[in-house]
Amino acid sequence: MFSASCHYGLQAMFYIALNSARDKNVELSEIAENQNIPKHFLSKILQLLVKNKLLISMRGPNGGFRLSRSPEKICLLDIVEAIDGLDIFNQCGIGFRECDDANPCPIHDEYKKSRETVFNLFKNKTLNGYAGDIEKGVNIVGLGTGTKPNV
């Protein structure tokens, strides 16, 4: 459903939420290495998130990235919208251009329910909610400094 860029953007945002602080930024190379994301590709994604005001980018010896606002104020849908846009929540599951409520494809009704469920999940979950679960070890994803992701 989501692009590779969007997946990487979500992973990077979780990593930044866990590893940045008001006085500490997270370097591009640290995120790329710990999340196993190609550095050049990640750089483009993070700049897109900066452009969409989800991240702040700083240059220099203490440079890197940090969230533009507190993690409880950034929902996952904000990240998806910045990278992939929201059209994915309206597209046909099979790929028909003419598919809609008036002219449905064979899976339209079921797929529409699934899209709405995913939309609401991403709208109602914040970086803070998941970051807390990750820190507590509730989720299987390892995003702390120096760990490789388990996904």
Topology (SSEs and partners):
Elements: H1 4-19, H2 28-35, H3 39-51, E1 55-58, E2 64-67, H4 76-83, H5 108-124, H6 127-136
Antiparallel strand pairs: 1-2
Explain what this protein looks like in three dimensions:
The chain is mainly alpha-helical and 151 residues long. It has a domain at 4-85 and 127-136: Arc Repressor Mutant, subunit A. Helices cover 48% and strands 5% of the residues. It contains six helices and two strands. It has a two-stranded antiparallel sheet with strand order 1-2. Strand 1 (55-58) and strand 2 (64-67) form a beta hairpin. Helix 4 (76-83) crosses helix 5 (108-124). The longest helix has 17 residues, at 108-124. The radius of gyration is 17 Å and the shape is elongated.
Concise structural overview:
This protein has 151 residues and is mainly alpha-helical. The protein has a domain at 4-85 and 127-136: Winged helix-like DNA-binding domain superfamily/Winged helix DNA-binding domain (Arc Repressor Mutant, subunit A, Orthogonal Bundle), CATH 1.10.10. It has six helices and two strands, in the order αααββααα.
